[in-house]
Structures are given as structure tokens and as C-alpha cells.
Amino acid sequence: MARYTGPKAKIARKFGEPILGETKVLKKKNYPPGQHGKGKKRKQSEYAVQLAAKQKAKSIYGLLERQFAKTFRLASRKQGITGENLLKFLEARLDNTVYRLGIAPTRRLARQLVLHKHITVNQKVVNIPSYTLRPGDVVAVREKSKSLQVITNSLATRNAKKFNWLEWDSKAMAGKFINYPEREQIPEKIEEQLIVELYSK
Q1: What is the DSSP-derived secondary structure letter of residue 201?
Q2: Which of 172, 175, 83 is nearest to 121 (CA)?
Q3: How far is CA 104 from its chain centroid?
Q4: Which end of the chain has fewer CB within 10 Å, C or N?
Q5: Which helix (H) or strand (E) holds 119?
Q6: Which tens digits make up the pLDDT trace of 46-96?
């Protein structure tokens, strides 16, 4: 399955912010990539704005179109506000939670750790990055993997910022998914209403 593995600087320039991790490129080239990137900005159509909002969310969470559309369908069937439900489901993905807990420094690397069976959910190895966690699930580093340098380095430089919907036990190298986050708790700048409007057409 094809997945973007190119330079994160290109994505950062596309959306005007470092959504895949810190990069210095925006200080030098604060305009989109490509031959028309530096030219005079045209007024975007309503569709283009909505599409950009969806592409940005897909890039942040590392999803392909099919996966994203499936997640949106699940969100639309659930009671509540569809856009907020969408973000809650995206945050409940296993790879995203591994990243939020600080086990991996990026979502890309979190996905790799899950695929290579370094992560357990409720003491069972799960190697599906899109696995959806439920409140009460415990995500941990597999016993054999606790000495992996990439994991120990990430935890050593772990961001002190805490997320209210997660608990972390540093001794056990395990975290608990307490509940789905509220919209205001999710730090990413995503205009979910535009995504809902796009899919509603």
C-alpha cells in the first residue's frame, strides 16, 4: 500500500506549518513547493479549501484516502458532532496513542514500532497501527523491546506535556487510554467542519 515517505519539509511548506515534526524550512521558504508556490496567491474555491483541510488531517495522522473515508463513515454513524467524532477516532488509533505517550518521537516511527510488534494492548501484541483503542485499554512497550534505543531515547526526551485522556506509568513503560479526548484537548489545528462539508457533497 502506497504511503507518503518523502521529505517532511515539503508537507510543512504545503500547509504552512510543521505538521510532521520540527523543520527549519519554513523560515527560509514560507510558501508552497512547486513552480507556482512563490507566485501570487489565487483566491481558492470553496472546494479547494475543504479539500486542503482533509489533506492536512490525512497528513497529520498518516492515513490514506480509503482509511480516512472509512473513519469518517464511522464518525458519521456515531451520535454527536461528526467532525469531533472524526478527530476522536483518529486520536484513538494505536499508532497515534503510541506517539502521544512519548514512546515514539513521531507518528511515522510510532507506526513502525506497532508494525514490528514492539507494542502491546492489554498485554497482547498488536501490530495493526489503525487498531482503535477503547477507554480502559493499556498500551505498553513489549518486555523484549524495553531496551530498544529508539524507545529509550524518545522516553528520555519525552515532552512533559500531558494529555488529559492518557495516563503514563514510566516504571512499567505503559499508558492507559482513559477516554476519548474532547475537541478542545486536541492541539492540532484541524478545521474538521470543512471536512464534514466536503464529504456531505
Answers
A1: -
A2: 175
A3: 12
A4: N
A5: strand 119-121
A6: 998 899 899 999 988 989 999 999 999 999 999 999 999 999 999 999 999
The pLDDT of residue 173 is 95
Helix (H) or strand (E) holding 120: strand 119-121
What confidence score (pLDDT) does residue 169 get? 93
> In sequence order, what DSSP letters do the residues of 70-91 get, joined into one string?
HHHHHHHHSSS-HHHHHHHHHH
| Residue 120: φ, ψ to 5° | -120, 155
Residue 17: half-sphere exposure toward Cβ, Cα within 13 Å: 9
Label each residue of 121-180 as H, E or C. ECCEECCCCCCECCCCCEEEECHHHCCCHHHHHHHHCCCCCCCCCEEEECCCCEEEECCC
Q: What does the block give as the cell for 99? A: 506517539
> What angle (nearest 5°) sits at the alpha carbon of residue 195, between those of residues 191 and 4?
90
**Contact status, residue 129 vs residue 95, Cβ threshold 8 Å:** yes
